[in-house]
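Retro notes - structure team

What went well: the batch runner handled both jobs without manual restarts.
What didn't: labels got mixed up in the shared folder, which is why I'm recording both outputs here explicitly, each with its sequence directly above its tokens.

Job 1
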Amino acid sequence: MYRAALFDLDGTLTESGPGITRSVAYSLQKFGITETDQKKLDRFVGPPLIDSYMRYYDLSYDQAKQAVVFYREYYETKGLFENRVYDGVEEMLRTLRDGGVRCVVATSKPKQFAVLILEHFGLEDYFSRVAGASMDESRTDKGEVIAYALEKAGIAPGERTIMVGDREHDVLGAKRNGLPTVGVLYGYGSREELTAAGAAFLAETPDQAASYILNH
């Protein structure tokens, strides 16, 4: 079985879409962009924000950095807790903990926000370490976040470790660090996206994810 598991936060542990997409819509308004298509806003859940602003709305790097500032104006006061824990997630974490698996959060969200969310929902005690992006956006790439999480958690290269996430960025970032990934289908990524990225296993429920980790 795997001895350690790294977990994405948005779309894997919590259904964070409402708070994130409302924050994005608020930030785009500052640039005179009114976005009413929810599917377009949903693309921002999971990937690094700067990359998404540049990719989907053709903002320059400097504009994207300013968009993140606007995003946080809403997110820090309202969006953070427009969020809920997915059904079965706490049971999954308890099962893994009781089975001897060390759990770590590796998120592209800044650590301080991730910690507040975990504390708000009573999940913090399931994790030995929380690793996230830096507030200055110098560490947002998922591969870099995962490498940082492995280092801070003291997970040795030979220790059997797996990533759990819902988007291709989780799978590709894990690959860069030599890790397989459980792709969760209850999040924001599709079966096609996760399969194309090379997920080792697709879990329809948190229980299936826990079972795979404990039995492989």
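Job 2
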Amino acid sequence: MHDQTSMLSEDSSLWEAMLRGDEKAFEKLYQGYFKLLYNYGRKVCSDAARVEDCIHDLFVDLWRYRATLSSTTSVRFYLYRSLRRKLVKDKDDSLTYYDDVRFVEQVLQMSAQSTEHDIIQVESIDQKTAQLRKLLNDLSPRQYEALMLYFYDEFTYEEIAAILAINEQSARNLVQRGLVQLRDYARHIVSLGLFLLSFLF
């Protein structure tokens, strides 16, 4: 928690310095967030070049219009939301979701740490990859992105709602229904011996 608070404070300081025209602060923000934004962009867009172009355009806009920008309580949230808007705008309001098996694996593992969800452990790496790919394909694009933002990037429901341009309850529903769908698939796979499923109350 302390590290996260320190990071938020440092980001805010860099942001404020950038708004004042500090090029070094701008460069630090770019260097500190490029990889994070790229990883997010690649999870929701299959075109790597387009993701890179949108990130570059985002930072060009930040520097160009810095005099008109306001302070922000979360630089990361601002950048994620801005990048998603650019990705959607550049592709006729649609996103091509990337088939990232590793993300679904992370969601299953991370949700297992919560008392609200089932613990899911996987035995076979090869079989796991095939099954997780099916799980991902069967999720709706919005469910996939909401789960990714919640578990992988640790955004709040309120922040997810703002990024996806939906209300907070809809964001909660997307995450919860996506987890239910993953859990239900895992139940079926148990009979094939691919997953071990237990319950944590």
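One thing worth noting from job 2: DSSP finds nine helices and two strands in the chain.
We'll revisit the folder naming next retro.
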